[in-house]
Amino acid sequence: MSEEETDDVGDPVREEEGLDERIDGDRTETATVEDVETLRADVVAFADEVEDRIIKRDTLESDLKRYVRKRQRRGHARGWGPYLVLLYGTAMTIGAFALLNGGWAILAMIVVWLSTLGLYVVMVVVGLIGGALGLPGRLRDWISGLRS
Q1: To 5 degrees, how large is the angle CA 39–CA 40–CA 41?
Q2: Residue boundaries of the structural domains of the chain
Q3: Mean of pLDDT values over 42-54
């Protein structure tokens, strides 16, 4: 055994310290140095096995971030934005028909349609910019996935 391994579990037992016999009531057992060394090796092996099973925080955090990025819906409407655009267009259409008559109502409908379309285009552009800002993180995850 190396010196590092014995530091983890204590100093080796020496025969001259008088620890080679143990008395339990009527029974006397002799523990040899080989028995103690075998037991120490078993403890060190168990400690190594437990250490291997422990999940490191950084590894877990990077795995969770990669999982969340992968699970996000791509190419789909996210959040309330598209629904607010539809609500805006519906409210403006109802207002145009309720308050205006004749050609003014049709003109108002065209303006509402163009403004709703424009607002939708703005929302799409914001979504594209948001996706572009997330690209470096996805590339980092992809490269770290290749390395591991």
Answers
A1: 90
A2: 3-53, 57-147
A3: 89
